[in-house]
Amino acid sequence: MATQVATLSDSLRGPVLTPADPGYASVRAEFNAMHDGEPALVASCSGTADVADAVNFARDQGLPVAVRGGGHSVAGLSSIDGGMLIDLASMSGVQVDAERRLAHVQGGALWGDVDRETQAFGLVVPGGVVSDTGVAGLTLGGGYGWVRRKYGLSCDHVVEAQVVTADGRVLTASADSNPDLYWAIRGGGGNFGIVTSFTFDLQPLGPIVGFAAVMYPLEEVADVLRGWRSYVEQAPNEVTSVVVTITFPANPEMPEAVHDRPVAIVGGVYVGDAEEGLAEMQPLRELGTVLFDMSGPTPYAGVQTGFDPLFPRNQLRSYWKSQYLDELSDGAIDTIAAGAQERPAPMILVNTFHMGGAINDVDPEATAFAERSAPYMVSIDGMWSDSADDADNIAWVRATWGDVSKFGTGGVYLNFTGLADEAPTAGVDSAFGRNLRRLEEVKAAYDPDNFFRVNNNIKPA
């Protein structure tokens, strides 16, 4: 094998690393410390040609492969023990064509990289809510962000992608070129190849937006959720909002009233004039006893980084579960509130997202991403630091998710779904629904041997 590795190293522009090499430890870290992985070989690719060579090498040598774009997979699907890690961190370029409203984004870019370039022109690719998240993983799995009700999902804005398939070919996926592959990568995950670049269409936003961000006492969360429900159910699509529950860590830049305090954070972003947006979202600032109100005209890039400190890379052990709801009934609110107040660790979050709007304007079969109707989603984001707490906290997340699921549709969002002892296929059937059969057929066409299987795996038909 040493001879073959040397040959691969000679062919790649980026380094090929083994655990004995000094650069091995500096490979972009995984988000989830529960799945940090120890690959036998890391191919740090500098471009598409490197990726193709790495895929061919791994296939010929019979090595299992994981792909790390941003490395933010909650389920640990961008890590591997043994085998080869194909690392795209060096491929983080973003080029904006403001006149045509297009952004060309390499597969290793983070959303912070994209926002940095697009906001210079007052434009946006609808992305996630944490700037450290990888563009590729979020987009391939759907992609909810702060402007989802106005502009929909990240995957809805993919115009074209360059994909390295399991046989080492480099294909273009678009409406006119390999349209079945284009359909599948918009929500079907990393099952069909490695996306080395995306072309996104851009939408107007910012650079200053109206941002609502208010902390309420967690003991008031049931009433806060009821008031929030009343507001969001009549809010325009320009408003995207979420309720996050957490024990907010002590921060000298924040008032003492919220230091180590369990809180419900109500957040909202308005697409349009910032002052008009703040006036529109004023009810979000009047839902209970205000502990701290951070609302105001805010740079969109600042909104995107605002939650970053809650999701430090490779420091917390993570196990999440998600569930869509057709309605936010009083019973569902009481269940969510009970879970939020019984969290066994301070960094465990119980969150309620308002969906709808532009998400629902796309036909469920137009892309692989099938959930286009639910107005709400709840996520239980289990995060803690001590491995000794793994079993208890995973059990708590599962139990709480089970309670919430009694009010749910049965559908899950795979980007917010962790894996512990589950198979990689867990949740796939409920996430893709009636689109699963077609996805299996596309998988058979582009990856009949299931070479790309370290993902929310779709078996070839």
Q: Mind explaining what this structure looks like?
A:
The two termini are 33 Å apart. Strand 5 (94-97) and strand 6 form a beta hairpin. This protein is α+β, with helices and mostly antiparallel strands. The protein has helices at residues 2-11, 48-61, 111-118, 135-140, 148-151, 179-185, 221-232, 274-280, 300-306, 330-341, 390-405, 428-432, 436-446, and strands at 16-17, 41-44, 65-68, 84-87, 94-97, 102-106, 123-124, 158-164, 170-174, 194-201, 203-204, 208-217, 239-248, 261-270, 292-293, 296-299, 317-325, 349-354, 376-384. It has three domains: 2-87, 2-Layer Sandwich (Uridine Diphospho-n-acetylenolpyruvylglucosamine Reductase, domain 2), CATH 3.30.43; 94-205, Uridine Diphospho-n-acetylenolpyruvylglucosamine Reductase, domain 3 (2-Layer Sandwich), CATH 3.30.465; 208-416, Vanillyl-alcohol Oxidase, Chain A, domain 3. The chain has 13 helices and 19 strands. Helix 3 runs antiparallel to helix 9 (300-306) and helix 7 (221-232) crosses helix 10 (330-341). The strands form four sheets. Strands 12, 13, 14, 15, 16, 17, 18 and 19 form an eight-stranded antiparallel β-sheet that branches. The chain has a five-stranded antiparallel β-sheet with strand order 5-6-10-8-9. Strands 1-2-4-3 form a four-stranded mixed β-sheet, covered by helices on one side.
